[in-house]
Write a structure and sequence with these properties.
The protein has about 280 residues and is α+β, with helices and mostly antiparallel strands. It contains 11 helices and 6 strands. The longest helix has 26 residues. It starts with a helix and ends in a 5-residue tail after the last strand.
């Protein structure tokens, strides 16, 4: 009996010593964490882990493209879009839409098409409501009808020609005084003029009175003189004039809205975990 008691006492002391070991505590905690993780995984079959480094890379690319740092709202939008993309990729793969080695954004785009559903058409009331709500986006720029007179020489013109230009003489008379060409520039706007010439000269032409010559603008063709024959104010076309364009815009907006609703439903099915693991 005495030997048995001694043996049990030794075992008890040995067990106590083992339990006091830090390594044992570590493994015990690890087992608890593993068990908790396993339970969580069982309850979250759609767990999606997102690496913060991937999000940071997307933000960096956006900042490089824009040439400035993103604000908090913009960073959140980049994060949300990246998570949406990963959800769509997961769904696309689960549906076996594509088994080749294409990059993820192709799969995400394909899933967007799947979710967008059938082609929809607006009713007359919906079309009119959309037009009224977005009237400003259909405003056309003011346009000009212009004569372009190009003298072949880039040198200073004779005083007589400059005087004739200042008096608003007709181009036929001016071309008798110096060699050049006459071309019409119909229905051009301020953006067109700036693209053809430059901002400064475009502003000069726009500020000029009707039938007043503005110039010179020097190019490799010679020197350009422009006169505005007619000015058409900016306007908003009636719905009847742009029905097809408004219908296409309505369809695009409605499909985007419905698509986002479907994506939001998918988002709710996932548990999002953003990790911040360091690369080894």
């Amino acid at each position: 009996m005495s030997k048995n008691l001694q043996t049990e006492s030794a075992v008890s002391k040995g067990a106590g010593a083992i339990l006091r070991e830090p390594t044992v505590h570590f493994f015990a905690i690890a087992l608890l964490i593993f068990a908790a993780y396993a339970i969580t995984q069982a309850n979250n079959e759609n767990l999606l882990e997102i690496d913060q480094r991937e999000i940071d890379a997307r933000i960096f690319l956006q900042e490089m493209s824009r040439g400035e740092a993103l604000n908090d709202e913009q960073r959140e939008l980049v994060t949300a879009f990246y998570i949406e993309e990963q959800i769509l990729v997961r769904e696309a793969l689960s549906m076996e839409l594509d088994n080749d080695e294409r990059i993820h954004d192709i799969l995400a785009q394909k899933m967007r098409h799947v979710l967008s559903g059938n082609i929809i058409q607006p009713t007359a009331a919906e079309l009119d409501a959309y037009y009224q709500e977005n009237r400003d986006r259909y405003e056309t720029l003011g346009t000009l009808n212009i004569d372009e007179l190009v003298f072949n020489s880039r040198e200073q013109l004779a005083d007589s020609i400059l005087a004739a230009l200042d008096q608003g003489s007709e181009p036929e008379l001016l071309l008798q005084m110096a060699e050049g060409t006459l071309s019409p520039l119909p229905n051009v706007n301020n953006i067109d003029l700036a693209n053809i010439f430059d901002d400064e000269y475009a502003a000069t032409v726009l500020a000029a009175e009707l039938n007043q010559w503005s110039g010179p603008y020097i190019s490799n063709r010679g020197q350009h003189w422009l006169r505005v024959l007619e000015k058409n104010d900016a306007r908003i076309p009636a719905l009847e004039e742009i029905t097809d364009r408004v219908r296409l815009d309505w369809i695009a907006a409605e499909e985007e809205s419905r698509l986002q609703q479907e994506i939001d439903k998918l988002w709710d099915n996932y548990t999002i975990v953003i990790t911040n693991s360091e690369s080894e």
